[in-house]
């Protein structure tokens, strides 16, 4: 199973957003760990909900900064967040209905998405917001 952990390469040079990213990585690591231990559905559900809620809160914080400072890529970035939320929501509905379990497919999706989103999409707003004095 793939693993992903916080490294300095993920820094967007905005302390509060870096702390958010670190927390998302920690929750994802917990999800990996729970899967490896064959935990109960309730434990996996709680961990998945924690990850989902934290991502929503983090997205809101990023979007506030981008909107407040007039980031020109705001609409595209917000769409990335919406697509992620929709995908995770669909997975959660399937999980709750018993149509799927927390699986390697979900972990692969989340790992790839985080890696791509932070290193390419988030890194694009970093210089813009840093120039506005956000660090």
Task: Note down, in words, how this protein is organized.
By secondary structure, the chain is an all-alpha fold. The protein has a single domain, classed as Hemerythrin-like (Four Helix Bundle (Hemerythrin (Met), subunit A)). Helix content is 75%, strand content 0%. It is built from four helices and no strands. Helix 1 runs antiparallel to helix 2 and helix 2 packs antiparallel against helix 3. The longest helix has 28 residues. The protein is elongated. It starts with 14 loop residues before the first helix and ends with a helix. The model has no long low-confidence stretch (mean pLDDT 86).
Q: Helices, strands, pairings?
A:
Layout: H1 15-36, H2 41-68, H3 74-96, H4 104-131
Helix pairs in contact: 1-2, 1-4, 2-3, 3-4
The CATH topology is: Four Helix Bundle (Hemerythrin (Met), subunit A)
Radius of gyration: 15 Å
Major sheet size, sense and barrel closure: none
CATH class: Mainly Alpha
**Straight-line distance between termini:** 34 Å
Please trace the helix and strand order, writing H or E for each element.
Answer: HHHH
The tally of structural domains comes to: 1
Number of helical elements: 4
CATH architecture: Up-down Bundle
**Unreliable spans:** none
Task: Give the mean pLDDT.
Answer: 86
Instruction: State the total count of DSSP E strands.
Output: 0
Helix/strand class: mainly alpha
- Assess the beta-strand content as a share of residues: under 5%
